[in-house]
Structures are given as C-alpha cells and as structure tokens.
Amino acid sequence: MSKPAFWLRCEKKEFERRAALTPTTAKQLIDAGFEIIVERDEQRIFDDSEYEAVGCKLVENNSWPRAPASVPIIGLKELPVSTDPLPHTHIQFAHCYKNQAGWSKVLSRFHAGGGTLYDLEFLQDDKGRRVAAFGFHAGFAGAAAGALVCAAQRQGKSVGKLEPYANEKEMVKDVKEKLGGSGKGVKALVIGALGRCGRGAVDLFRKIGLEEDDILKWDMAETAMGGPFSEILDVDIFVNCIYLSSLIPPFLTHDQIRAAGKQRRLSVVVDVSCDTTNPFNPIPIYSINTTFSEPTVPVDVGPENPPLSVISIDHLPTLLPREASEQFSHDLLPSLLQFPERKTARVWVEAEQLYQSKLAEAVKAEGL
C-alpha cells in the first residue's frame, strides 16, 4: 500500500510568503508515515532547504498540474484565474462559497476536471469553529497596518509599500517608531473584539502603547441595535474583524462620512474581513481589494473634508509570515493526520458535503 501524501504547491499571489505546511508540520506528517512533496518557491518565507532537511521531496515550482491526480494539493490562497479543469483534490482557501465575484466559475473548474475542493475556511470542529485560522495574526497585522497609515497621514505622507516583518517584536518596534515612539493618543475601535481576529487587533494596539480607554472593544452586544454607528467617526482607526454571512445594516456609509464634514476624526478603516465583493459587506464605502504595494484606497469624502483611507488587503497575516504559518499549520495538523480517513473523519466528511452543495449551486448558475 502506497504512503498517504500531500503536495505543497507554491503560492502565486503576489507578496504571499506564508505556507500551509511548515517544515515543522511537514516533519510531523513524515514521522506519521506521509510523503510530503514540496514545490521550490523563492517567495515562501521558509527556505527550500528547511523542507529538504526534514525529509520532504522537492520538485519544480508550479508543477502541481502534472502531479498524479491521486495526490492531494495543499496551498493557501486561491489559484490564478483560469478555465483549466481541476482533476486533483485541493485543500486551500478558495473564496467561492459566499457568492463572491466569480465564485461559480471557480467551482466549475472542479466540475470539469472531476476534482474536489476542501476549503480551509470551512474545516470546522464539532462546535462549529474553524480547526485552523489566521484570525489572530490577521487582526494583529491589520491593526499594525492601520497604525502605519495613521502615522504616515500625520506626516502628510503616503504609507508606501508594506513589507513583511521577521517577527512580532520587529513589527511592534517599527510601528511605535513610526508613531514617534508610542501609540499613546491614538484612538481605535475594533468591531468583533471578542473573536480571534479582534483579539489580535486589540493586542497590537496595547503593545504599541494605546491607552486602554482609547481601545474601544465592540462585539455583538454593542452592534445589536444596528448601524450606521456615529462612534466610528470619533476614532482615528476603525478595524472591522467580524465574520459576516447575512445581511445587516452597514456600520459606516458615504452619507454618514460626508455629513460629518470636517468634524470627523476617523482617518483609517481597516477591513480585515475583506469580503469586498460579498453582497453582505457592512462597510460599503469602497469596492476594491488593496495590496501590499498599494495598501490603501481613498474614500470619496466630499469636497474639502479630511482624507479617509481604507486598507482591504485579503492576506494581512503574511506581514508576519513565519509566525502566522507556524500557528496555522500547527492547528491544521490533527485534521491532516485524519485525511487518509476522510470518508469517515467528521471534519472532512462535512467539508466535502459543503463542497458538493456549493458545486451543485455553481453547476446550476453556470448552466452546466
């Protein structure tokens, strides 16, 4: 009987340095009897030699389309847009289960090739929580990015390209320096503060020196009455960390921003959730994802009003690529060890059932 295997593909999204499998977890899988094939990738935060040292088999960059169809392909971000059929089993974030732009075309590739998608966002434990998530590091990095933009605005500059940090300590040090030594005096509001993402954002704000009273921590209780919320206009940085799957009143609107005029304090919105094309987006003041090379998009605030920028980067944790990858991969490992029993292991059974349901919707939408 052949060994179970995973094929770690390279990431094609620009600036994405994280990995779904780290050398640490790869070794644990190898020790458990798996074969781990790793594509060479200069962009990845982990050197190829780190994988080779623990027993992984290295192969050519982006060679997964030629891999045996029986070998599952694991990655993080979505595949480049294409119409090529997908015959493999893919484990990744596909961003196509919530009616995002192009969702049915993504799934139609699996229909055409006979492959299967296990979306990492929807691998859940028996309590309905994700088995592995980048939430904490997304919130932490998003708050850092917001603080960097705030600091640049105060100096009349643009923030420029965002670069990944070697570790959390270096990130905190740099943000504090950019703010003049401390974040004291900056005021922030975090919605979704009790979740993983929100806790990460709050942690960053504390570590860069914001006063506790200047970190407004909102969750379901504070937003239950429904937006828009005028309190958002009275902080420097607003960080949205909520996971939304249904329509609610918006948190912030163009009309609200224009009406505030020059009295508005808010200068940076960080939409960590970043479902830009999701019809349920609660921050309908922008319509594009931003990038590490161009981190912000300006909001139409009306004539002669102070500027307002939105950060809507959909892979913020890659600002801390090594730490974020290690934490995520560690949390994913128990489920990966169950993958050979995916036809009976609950986490995989439920993920495949969801895939089949969404695939049927896509087939109908595409008229296949």
From TrEMBL:
Q: Which CDD domains match?
A: SDH (cd12188)
Q: Which UniProt keywords apply?
A: Amino-acid biosynthesis, Disulfide bond, Lysine biosynthesis, NAD, Oxidoreductase
Q: How does it assemble?
A: Monomer.
Keyword presence, Transcription: no
Q: What is the lineage of its organism?
A: Eukaryota, Fungi, Dikarya, Basidiomycota, Agaricomycotina
Catalytic center at which residues?
A: 77, 95
Q: What GO CC annotations are associated with the protein?
A: cytoplasm
Disulphide bonds annotated for this chain are: 197-241
Q: Per the UniProt record, which EC number(s) apply here? A: 1.5.1.7
Name the record gives this protein: Saccharopine dehydrogenase [NAD(+), L-lysine-forming]
Alanine dehydrogenase/pyridine nucleotide transhydrogenase NAD(H)-binding domain location is 171-312
The positions annotated for binding NAD(+) are 129, 195-196, 219, 223, 243, 272, 313-316
Q: Which residues form the signal peptide?
A: none
Record field: catalytic activity: L-saccharopine + NAD(+) + H2O = L-lysine + 2-oxoglutarate + NADH + H(+)
UniProt cross-references to SMART domains, sorted A to Z: AlaDh_PNT_C, AlaDh_PNT_N
The protein's matches in InterPro entries, at most eight in alphabetical order, are given as: AASS, AlaDH/PNT_N, AlaDH/PNT_NAD(H)-bd, Lys1, NAD(P)-bd_dom_sf
A Pfam family (short name) is AlaDh_PNT_N
Q: Which GO terms describe its molecular function?
A: saccharopine dehydrogenase (NAD+, L-lysine-forming) activity
Q: Which GO terms describe its biological process?
A: lysine biosynthetic process via aminoadipic acid
The pathway noted for it is: Amino-acid biosynthesis; L-lysine biosynthesis via AAA pathway; L-lysine from L-alpha-aminoadipate (fungal route): step 3/3
Q: Which residues form the Alanine dehydrogenase/pyridine nucleotide transhydrogenase N-terminal domain?
A: 7-141
Q: Which family does it belong to?
A: Belongs to the AlaDH/PNT family.
Q: Which organism is it from?
A: Neolentinus lepideus HHB14362 ss-1
